[in-house]
């Protein structure tokens, strides 16, 4: 795991269609230290996923912005450099799990590295991760036979395959019941305790106590707000 800061400076994003131009992010700036858990909250459609995609280099921001993760200049690096960087340093966890239904839990965890690593090593690593996440009995099950909480733990195992410094989470508890949600949040808290940065996008205020800092996205503008103020609200 390497140490990397995130630096986002005056990030703007405008969507352009034939009929309208819509600015979703307006000069968003923030800085995250390695090991922090940062929550981004905001109502539906406020631009949270857009922000996450721009930060991870999955979408280009407007010119004049600066996005850096560790040594990577996200807006100026080549697609190949970004892909390689993401593969080695960032784990992604999504609301919809994004698992392949025809593959077993273990194969799903192995898949991203299948082209790059020896199968025996990969199998060993996947099994170890699934065991750590309490899924030793479910490794050979396919996603349609797993509960939501189990699916999300498989997705977390997959995200951890390359021991990433940064976990980018897009509403990962959005589809879970209370007990699975608490379980996933505790797992993420432990991973955060190991020194991993958590960048968490949500509209669930119950997630906030788990994080260190809270940013609110509203009408394209990102503002840091005091965690205690929102929690006690
Ligand atoms: N490719 C696109 N082209 C045009 N408009 C888009 C595109 N993607 C998103 N938008 C619009 O940009 C705004 C922000 O979308 P985004 O998905 O980033 O919001 P969000 O805060 O993640 O929403 P939610 O919480 O519902 O997932 C929305 O109004 C959306 O309709």
From TrEMBL:
One of its GO terms (cellular component) is plasma membrane. Residues 6-233 form the ABC transporter domain. GO terms for molecular function: ATP binding; ATP hydrolysis activity; transmembrane transporter activity. Keywords: ATP-binding, Lipoprotein, Nucleotide-binding, Transport. It comes from the Bacteria. SMART domains: AAA. InterPro entries: AAA+_ATPase, ABC_transporter-like_ATP-bd, ABC_transporter-like_CS, ABC_transpr_LolD-like, MacB-like_ATP-bd, P-loop_NTPase. This is Putative ABC transport system ATP-binding protein/lipoprotein-releasing system ATP-binding protein. It comes from Oceanobacillus limi.
């Amino acid at each position: 795991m390497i140490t990397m800061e995130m630096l986002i400076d005056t990030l703007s994003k405008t969507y352009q269609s034939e009929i309208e131009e819509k600015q979703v992010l307006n000069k968003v700036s923030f800085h995250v230290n390695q090991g922090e858990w940062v929550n981004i909250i905001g109502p539906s459609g406020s631009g949270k996923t857009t922000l996450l995609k721009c930060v991870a280099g999955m979408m280009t921001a407007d010119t004049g912005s600066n996005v850096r993760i560790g040594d990577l200049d996200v807006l100026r690096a080549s697609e190949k450099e970004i892909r390689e960087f993401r593969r080695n340093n960032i784990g992604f966890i999504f609301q919809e799990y994004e698992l392949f239904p025809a593959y077993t839990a273990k194969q799903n965890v192995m898949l991203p590295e299948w082209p790059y690593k020896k199968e025996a090593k990969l199998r060993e690593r996947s099994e170890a991760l699934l065991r750590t996440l309490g899924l030793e009995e479910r490794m050979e099950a396919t996603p349609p036979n797993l509960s939501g909480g189990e699916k999300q733990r498989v997705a977390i195992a997959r995200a951890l395959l390359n021991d990433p410094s940064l976990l980018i989470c897009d509403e990962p508890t959005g589809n879970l019941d209370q007990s699975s949600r608490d379980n996933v949040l505790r797992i993420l808290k432990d991973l955060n305790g190991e020194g991993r940065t958590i960048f968490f996008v949500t509209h669930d205020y119950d997630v906030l106590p788990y994080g260190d800092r809270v940013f609110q996205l509203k009408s394209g503008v990102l503002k840091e707000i005091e965690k205690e103020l929102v929690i006690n609200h």
